[in-house]
Design brief:
Blueprint (H helix, E strand, L loop, with lengths): L14 E4 L16 E2 L3 E2 L7 E2 L3 E3 L8 H10 L2 E4 L5 H13 L17 H11 L4 E4 L8 E5 L15 H4 L1 E2 L6 E2 L4 H10 L4 E5 L5 E6 H8 L15 E4 L4 H11 L3 E4 L7 H14 L5 E6 L2 H9 L5 E3 L9 H5 L5 H19 L1 E2 L2 E4 L5 H9 L4 E4 L1 H4 L8 E4 L2 E7 L9 H4 L14 E5 L4 H18 L5 H7 L1 E4 L2 H7 L18
Helix pairs in contact: 1-2, 1-15, 2-7, 9-11, 12-15
The structure holds ribavirin monophosphate (RVP).
Length: 504
């Protein structure tokens, strides 16, 4: 007879935090969100610590180089998606590692023969209004000029007008040589009243751009996550199929941490992957594993040598695994169960294996709940997909801006390595959807907004750091009726009031 699983299956929205005593010290400015990313022994420190407990999902629609840089600047980590050729993924990792704070490698470069229509399309897609022009349109091609929104008038100019007819040509641009310091570049910008300064090499090839606005913003990045060479920390996804080929390329490219990206991680495939990495790299390569949803799954991966363990099956916003296969578990219950197992394992083995709660965060308060339930950090897809920096197109649908967001198990992503158990490819089925999410602007201000709420709630619970939150948080299950009470109710909302839209 089938075994009846005794654990529960609740999700975040079914819980609330009951406030605890807070003293005069419990103010948001005093709250630390630092958290360990990889395992450590009792009495030691984690070799990698994040300044905020957020990572971005291993997904095509989420974690490209641009988002990885923006998130590292805020103190979190992206995991570049693995559903692409290993060389291509390694190139993205390299792009993040070679990014020098303040020196931007353009991802919207033009060629002289492109048209104004191309410029407008690119501007719409990326949100960038300044675009360098290179001979072959590559980010490091021969520098030909620059286009800004001051160079054309949409209402008057012919969309077929060529870029070379309205760009500011290279000869008229003030540029600086490769090797110029950020401070010196900034002085040139101010002395010549520029908005941006192209940096070129000895042969006139474009290296990067320095923007006037970035210098000041760089100075205000107190949480940025840098390695010992002052490059941003970045993670990369791997799968349980081509690791022997992929891992060496990612390590060589400088990935700081890897993560096995699998929809179902309680499997021998994961152990074989971890064994291979340990055999070839010992403990120098850090690698997380998942996803699992109970204590047994955690124990298996911890004993197999995972540096962190990821929890979550079927709770992702674009995920239809539960509908398609009937497997999974409510994210909150899964997390509580696994965090208990982590603490028991720590007691027993003296090794602390951080737990990541992956998927299903809809409201900002879900972040606080997940952290209070024991998550060391969170992984989010939908949340980050909405920002300027995600790699997808921004579109105008029925008068509102949206960004595209699709699951790794969707037909669009074709990430069979994440789901496939082998066998005839023609029999593969989808476990994810292709969708839109509301466009939400830049990552920085959204993350700041969400974490302000997290810090504030932590103060209400009397906690000044994440360990204290876990110890002090009082979590209660709520009834379906009290859920209704939680939103605005029994009033007629004014149309102009958008403050009830708390979804993040
Ligand atoms: P969410 O943040 O709710 O959008 O969830 C993101 C998570 O969903 C990912 O980190 C991953 O674990 C899972 N995912 C990604 N693709 C799919 C799918 O197509 N089913 N699920």
């Amino acid at each position: 007879m089938a075994h009846f699983f005794e654990g529960e299956s609740h999700t975040f929205s079914e819980y609330l935090l009951v406030p605890g005593y807070s003293s005069h010290e419990n103010v948001p400015q005093g709250v630390s969100l630092k958290t360990p990313l990889v395992k450590f022994r009792r009495g030691e420190h984690s070799a990698l610590t994040m300044n905020i407990p957020l990572t971005s999902a291993v997904m095509q629609a989420v974690s490209g180089p641009r988002l990885a840089i923006a998130l590292a600047q805020e103190g979190g980590i992206s995991f570049i998606y693995q559903s692409q050729a290993p060389e291509q993924e390694a190139k993205m990792v390299r792009e993040v590692k070679s990014y020098k704070a303040g020196f931007v490698v353009s991802d919207s470069t033009l060629t002289p023969s492109m048209t104004l229509a191309d410029v407008l399309e690119l501007r719409n897609r990326t949100g960038h209004s300044t675009m360098p022009v290179t001979e072959d349109g590559s980010a490091h091609g021969l520098f030909c000029g620059i286009v800004t929104s001051r160079d054309y008038r949409v209402s008057r100019d012919d969309p077929s007008k060529r870029v070379c007819e309205f760009m500011t040509p290279a000869q008229q641009c003030i540029t600086a040589q490769e090797g110029t310091t950020l401070k010196a570049a900034n002085d040139i910008i101010w002395d010549h009243k520029l908005n941006q300064l192209p940096i070129v090499d000895g042969e006139g090839r474009l290296v990067s751009l320095v923007f006037r606005k970035d210098y000041d913003s760089h100075k205000s990045l107190p949480n940025e996550l840098l390695d010992e060479h002052k490059s941003y920390i970045v993670g990369a996804g791997i799968n349980t199929r081509d690791y022997a080929e992929r891992v060496p390329l990612l390590v060589e490219a400088g990935a700081d941490v890897l993560c096995i990206d699998s929809s179902e991680g309680f499997s021998e495939w994961e152990k074989l992957t971890l064994d291979w990495i340990r055999e070839h790299y010992g403990n120098t390569v850090k690698v997380g594993a998942g996803n699992i949803v109970d204590a047994e799954g955690f124990r298996y991966l911890a004993e197999a040598g995972a540096d962190f363990v990821k929890v979550g099956i079927g709770g992702g916003s674009i995920c239809i695994t539960r509908e398609q296969k009937g497997i999974g578990r409510g994210q909150a219950s899964a997390l509580i169960d696994v965090c208990r197992a982590r603490d028991e394992y720590f007691e027993e083995a003296g090794v602390y294996v951080p737990v990541c709660s992956d998927g299903g965060i809809v409201y900002d308060y879900h972040m606080t709940l997940a952290l209070a339930m024991g998550a060391d950090f969170l992984m989010l897809g939908r949340y980050f997909a909405r920002f300027d920096e995600s790699p997808t197109r921004r579109l105008n649908v029925n008068g509102s801006y949206v960004k595209e967001y699709w699951g790794e198990g969707s037909a669009r992503a074709r990430n069979w390595a994440r789901y496939d158990l082998g066998g005839d490819k023609r029999l593969s089925f989808v476990e994810g959807v292709d969708s839109y999410v509301p466009y939400a602007g830049p990552l920085k201000e959204n993350v700041e907004g969400s974490l302000t709420k997290v810090r504030s709630t932590m103060c209400n619970c009397g906690a000044l750091d994440l360990c204290e939150l876990r110890e002090k948080a009082k979590i209660t299950l709520v009834s379906a009726t009290s859920l209704v009470e939680g939103g605005a109710h029994d009033v007629i909302l004014k149309e102009s009031d958008s403050s009830t839209n708390f979804r993040s």
